[in-house]
Amino acid sequence: MIIRYPPASAFRPNGLGTVCLSCFLQGARPVSWSVRRNFSRTSNVQAALTGTMPRLRAGYFSANSLLEKARSNAKRGNLTSVIPEGSSIAAENEASKLPASSGASAPPPTSTQDLPHRRRQAARKAVAGADLVLPQNSSSTLSETAAQAPSNSIRRLIPVLLSLSKPRLSVLVVLTACASYSLYPVPELLLPSATDTPSLSPLTLLFLTTGTTLCAASANAFNMLYEPKWDAMMSRTRNRPLVRGLISTRGAALFAILAGLGGVTALYYGVNPTVSFLGALNIVLYAGLYTPLKRVSVVNTWVGAIVGGIPPLMGWTAAAGQSATHGDWKELLLGEHNIGGWLLASLLFAWQFPHFMSLSWSIREEYKNAGYKMLCWTNPARNGRVALRYSILFFPICIGLCYYGVTEWTFAATSLPVNIWLVKEAVRFWKLEGHKGSARGLFWASVWHLPVVMILAMVEKKGMWQRVWRAAMGEPDLDEEDWLEEDEEDAVLSAKEGKVKPEVRAAVIALPSR
């Protein structure tokens, strides 16, 4: 409606040019169609007013006079004083002052969001938001819990320290190390005479779990110490304890140092020095190389994948150290029987890419605004290719675990469906570059893929079910004397074939037969 202020000018002959036909009809009493038809010309309207046309009701324009007064008084900060009691505007003003708990029904305020095109825009944004795949952040949840507790209390300190350690990531690191520890092929593991033969020690497993947890907590705390400024720019990390000031920088640094020293010491004395070195290396790589490299180059993703692949190698090395001859790092890491540990490390290394590429895609704009160099926004096409490339690697890795005697050959068949599922989602993610829910599909496929593959590998560990069958059926196994007899027979056979020195050969042949 077009109205010239003040509204009273509408009643003057020269003021009707500012009133449109629709508004004029709403404010007048019903008139005949012949009169309405002539309203298109100003002269006819003026004639109607002076002659047969009824005059406009002044009450129709009363609201506009109120608005005019409100505008003039708003500059002086006295908006509500010009609104008379009993008017509709005063009623809305009073209703807006009611508390939310009063239950009084108030008319909804006029908003552009109520317009149809605004609703359509909101619906499109909701559909676009469905691509978000991030689960609830555990560190943020712990920070919320800590913020509600009294300051300088143990109720605040414990959740803050747990939040600094990134509990979900630390648990994943420990589980991969323990799974690799259990997959090490130790003979006679399930026999009653297992105490007389090399076996996996529960005490060693306890030290491995404790030390790995402390090393992971230390690396994560150092990570948060380095980047609170940029954590505040991202919705996923803005509730971390250092960002919210729930703990001082000095306190967080002290926790990171003590956790690192405790973890490395537990691994050194409770497991072996090689595992302790790997734990310290993981802290240095994650906190000293990966974290600052995030703002420099996309290579940071590959460094982070190496960090994720070290814990399975730690678990394998911890188990290998219990039956090693010398126990040095060359034997534990480069021995011919330790290829399985490197295969498990490569499995975790490859898994990082489909998981992180899909996860980072949903917050690519936040990574960009915070200055983190990630493929999800620097090169989305390559981001999808990398996720697909490393998803395909699971097929040869699973076959390699079977070939080198870590699992039975049936593992290659049972792991095939979940590997195909991951590759299928990775292909979709690559083609659509994360859109249309492809990032969400790949993310959840990766979340389920890792535990399923690890559980299948442990269930189908090489020789485990044969030993279980023999123990259940009561079939006899080779005891220590049988092992000695076989060793003597092998020695005699080697001596006869000339595979040993002459003096040793003469002594072996002279052994009395049993």
UniProtKB/TrEMBL annotation:
Q: Which keywords belong to this entry? A: Heme biosynthesis, Membrane, Mitochondrion, Transferase, Transit peptide, Transmembrane, Transmembrane helix
Q: Which GO terms describe its molecular function?
A: protoheme IX farnesyltransferase activity
Q: Cellular component GO terms, alphabetically? A: mitochondrial membrane
Where is the chain membrane-spanning? 169-186, 206-226, 247-269, 275-293, 300-319, 339-363, 387-406, 441-459
Any keyword Transmembrane helix?
Answer: yes
| Major location category of this protein | mitochondrion
Cellular compartment(s): Mitochondrion membrane
Membrane-topology descriptor: Multi-pass membrane protein
Question: CDD domains per the record?
Answer: PT_UbiA_Cox10
Q: One short Pfam family name for this protein? A: UbiA
GO annotations under biological process? Answer: heme A biosynthetic process
Where composition is biased (Low complexity), the residues are 96-105
Enzyme Commission (EC) number: 2.5.1.-
**Stretch list, region Disordered:** 93-122
Function per UniProt: Converts protoheme IX and farnesyl diphosphate to heme O.
Family note: Belongs to the ubiA prenyltransferase family.
Listed name of the protein: Protoheme IX farnesyltransferase, mitochondrial
